[in-house]
Design brief:
Length: about 90
C-alpha cells in the first residue's frame, strides 16, 4: 500500500507481553459516507494465530495494522452521508 496513492492512510502497531481473550474477537472495517471509494487493509500478527482460542494466553504478541482509502468517483446525489447510521 503506497501511502502517496491514498486520500487517507493509517498505520498502527500494538504489543502485549501477555494477552488473553474471554471470547473470540469480532472485527470489522467500514468507511461510511457518500461516494465510491477504493479501500485496502492488512494486518500482520506475531505470535497471535488467525483464529483466537478464548481463554488461551498468548505471550509477546505484536499486531501491525494498515488501512487506506481514497475516493474513486463522484458522490451519488441520492446517497445518505452515513448509510449504516453514524
Amino acid at each position: 500500500m503506497d501511502s502517496e496513492a491514498w486520500d487517507i492512510a493509517f498505520r498502527s502497531a500494538v504489543h502485549a507481553g501477555r494477552l488473553r481473550f474471554t471470547e473470540e474477537p469480532r472485527t470489522a472495517v467500514r468507511f461510511p459516507g457518500a461516494g465510491r471509494r477504493e479501500s485496502a487493509s492488512h494486518s500482520e500478527r506475531t505470535r497471535l494465530p488467525g483464529r483466537i482460542v478464548p481463554g488461551e494466553e498468548y505471550r509477546d504478541v505484536t499486531v501491525a495494522y494498515r488501512l487506506a482509502t481514497r475516493l474513486s468517483g463522484p458522490e451519488d446525489p441520492g446517497a445518505s452521508p452515513c448509510p449504516e447510521g453514524c
